[in-house]
Design brief:
411 residues, three-stranded antiparallel sheet, 15 helices
Length: 411
């Protein structure tokens, strides 16, 4: 996978096709790319310079210049689908949608796409200038819609595909975020008890002049270690997290290995498998129904399944289908797809209703993901409560043991 190049916003002044003075903003890799894009739009640039960075990240109109997220692109595609379906001309739809967007960076992208389309370029070609936001699948579907005169239908399909994808991502994040946050809070509370609370009890115990119970002595020793080394532990944790995140972003090999490892994690691995199968079926159903050739559709699916193991499997399926192999046979050889999906694919190939059968498989596995998230949440909550009770409750009991024993002696 090629490394994503950083784009910047440029302010330009020039002359349009009518000879009129024009100015605006454009997002590009550098000023040369910006000039080239403007010329493609029929504008002869006179001045092109990098836009000044807003103070404290606040752009014009007081709105924050936020990073463009996948959810923002999903919102944009849904709005465009709604506008075009309602009969609004494409260029006017861009104006209406951009007016309702607060994210200044996304607004600039939309207005640049609008400018490109109004200059005579295809919608898909205008989107392809921003591969970091619009994937090949989105561009291919819109291109198919433009060529077949079914842009309204294709925009609707793109919007549904993106909404389904975002929904799956949100469910997986929900399943993973809750236990992680709870464990971090438990770690913080435990560290606070060891550093601030236990030393107070330790000073009290020294006046007893008696040997401390084993659990209390263990907690006191742990507290002394925490007081001496907690800064090093926190620094090591922060550095480890930063290295891990950067490795995921920069190293394709590390990311692939981590995604393969996740599939083997109990409970969570099964959830990730179901989500990958759901995405595979949904995307393939959408692209095939749009008239994209099967081999090209599989190429788009490979980049959309969200897991390296399934990505490589889909590429293997694509290569075998390209040589004339039936898809359900190619899927079976990968040994990672459920029998139900393989059987539904086989029925779809034989009946000529592959997109419909894959859509049904996607519906089934999306429901499976819903159920898996609910079951996971119901299992994790009591497990975390027990964990917190054992760790934090154990610390408190260990601290009060000497007081209880002293009370028994006095009694």
């Amino acid at each position: 996978m090629a490394k994503e190049q950083k784009t910047s916003t440029f302010v330009w002044e020039g002359v349009n096709r009518r000879g009129q003075a024009a100015k605006g903003e454009i997002i590009a890799l550098n000023s040369a790319y910006a000039k080239a894009q403007l010329r493609k739009q029929g504008i002869e640039p006179r001045k092109v310079r990098k836009a000044p960075q807003p103070l404290f990240g606040i752009g014009s109109g007081g709105s924050s210049s936020k990073r463009i997220k996948s959810a923002d692109i999903t919102f944009f595609t849904r709005q465009m689908a709604t506008m075009v379906k309602s009969g609004v001309p494409l260029v006017q739809a861009f104006d209406i949608v951009s007016d309702g967007i607060d994210n200044q960076n996304l607004k600039r992208v939309i207005l640049d796409v609008r400018e490109s389309v109004s200059s005579g370029n295809d919608f898909a070609a205008a989107l392809r200038k921003y591969p970091q936001y619009f994937d090949d699948l989105t561009c291919n579907l819109i291109e198919s819609g433009e060529q077949a005169g079914t842009l309204q239908t294709m925009l609707e399909k793109v919007a549904i595909y993106k909404e389904k994808t975002e929904s799956l991502k949100a469910k997986i994040r929900k399943a993973l975020t809750y236990p992680v946050i709870t464990l971090l809070v438990a770690f913080g509370v435990t560290l606070l008890l060891l550093i601030k609370v236990v030393p107070t009890f330790e000073d009290l115990f020294k006046n007893f002049g008696a040997e401390l119970p084993a659990p209390t002595q263990f907690v006191v020793n742990l507290s002394e270690i925490a007081q001496d080394y907690y800064l090093y532990v926190l620094a090591a944790l922060i550095i480890s997290v930063v290295i891990f995140v950067q490795s995921l972003r920069r190293s394709k090999e590390f990311k692939d290995r981590f995604e393969a490892f996740l599939l083997g994690v109990p409970v969570f691995g099964d959830l990730i498998r179901k989500a990958a199968v759901a995405r595979y079926a949904r995307v393939l159903s959408t692209t095939f129904a749009a008239g994209v050739p099967l081999v090209d559709a599989l190429d788009s699916v490979a980049g959309a399944v969200g897991n390296a193991v399934y990505r490589d499997a889909v590429r293997k399926i694509r290569d075998e289908v390209a040589t004339g192999q039936q898809m359900h046979h190619a899927m079976r050889t990968t040994k990672i797809f459920p029998n139900m999906v393989i059987q539904m694919t086989s029925i779809g190939e034989e009946s000529g209703a592959l997109d419909d059968m894959l859509g049904k498989a996607a519906d089934h596995y999306e429901e499976e993901v819903d159920n898996a998230v609910e079951n996971l949440t119901s299992m994790i909550e009591p497990a975390i409560m027990v964990f917190l009770g054992v760790v934090i409750g154990g610390l408190i009991v260990a601290m009060y043991l000497p007081i209880f024993e002293m009370g028994d002696v006095v009694g």
